[in-house]
Amino acid sequence: MDGNLKNFTATGSHTQPIRPWGVGGSDIGAILGLSPFRTPLQVWAEKVGSQSCVGDALRLRYGRHMEPFVAQEYEHATGHTTHEHGPTVHHPRHPHLFAHVDRLVSLGGRPVLDTDGNICTTTLLECKTASAFSASQWGCEGTDQIPHAYLVQCAWYTTLTGCSQAHLAVMLGNSDLRIYTVVHDPLLGDRLVRAALEFWDEHVMAGVPPALKTRDDVLALHPKETPGLEFEADPTTLSQLRRLQRIQGLSKKLEDESQRVRDQLALSMGPAEFLRHNGRTLGTFRSGSTIKRVDITRLRRERPDVVSEYLVKSSPQRRLMLGGASHA
């Protein structure tokens, strides 16, 4: 496998470390279908070079920007010191499995590297930021009750570094710092390594995409339909179709009812701007800002040359439309 290792520079606002071609800590959760940001197909597409992770670029750059601050707050909260670790950590037997840890933690002032430059500390630190609205996904501090994608990322890092535990410091909503502990689990680590090797050999090296998980996956792999190609609905598909039709029917009824209630509220308020109860504002009924728009119909008629100069063409995207005979 060594001969297959490649390097690439991650894009960003500043120079990033050279990342090996393989499976890293930010990939393992997505490979297992645990990431809210990426699917297994997206990881596969990035590895085989058919799709970039542009959508993730801003989120990743923001995480890197906030990492020093979160690490500093962790130090203030724990009294430990942390150290950046630039070199990539590789699995001893599978060098295409790698890790980039955020920080190594010095406990009691002890060194984090031995005289040969090998990691000798027992603890590493992973820094995260998250929206305050996701607070319910995080359990009690000190536990490993964290989102599953981050749990397996920490387990991946302890497996590759040999650390006995990972601390995860997360800043929730820019004001709530929480620190969690993930103790190394050898069985989980072995399972993660096997899953990564299977993904790499059976999908990346073989050029075979993993199972599709979302409609976006379908659009990424099949952006254009095959003209005339038909798919014969099987019992599962027919069941899904009937369920979708029921949901759409309920959604239409709820939307109609919502509109009727809104109309009733508007009738009750009349010329009033605010809807209040016991001094508390429950709603408003007022004009929005003045809207300015281009009269495109007139512009096309009077200045077609200007319209043609500024026209931007976009690639049409496949849309799922339901029609034909209904299914009871």
Give an overview in words.
The chain is of the alpha+beta class and 328 residues long. The chain has a domain at 2-221: Lambda Exonuclease, Chain A. It contains nine helices and eleven strands. The chain has helices at residues 25-31, 40-48, 54-78, 148-161, 186-204, 215-221, 235-269, 296-302, 304-310; strands at residues 7-9, 18-20, 81-83, 89-90, 98-99, 103-106, 123-130, 165-172, 176-183, 274-277, 280-284. The strands form four sheets. The chain has a five-stranded mixed sheet with strand order 3-6-7-8-9, sandwiched between helices. The chain has a two-stranded antiparallel sheet with strand order 1-2. The protein has a two-stranded antiparallel sheet with strand order 4-5. Strand 4 (89-90) and strand 5 (98-99) form a beta hairpin. Helix 4 packs across helix 5. The model is unreliable at 1-18 (pLDDT under 50).
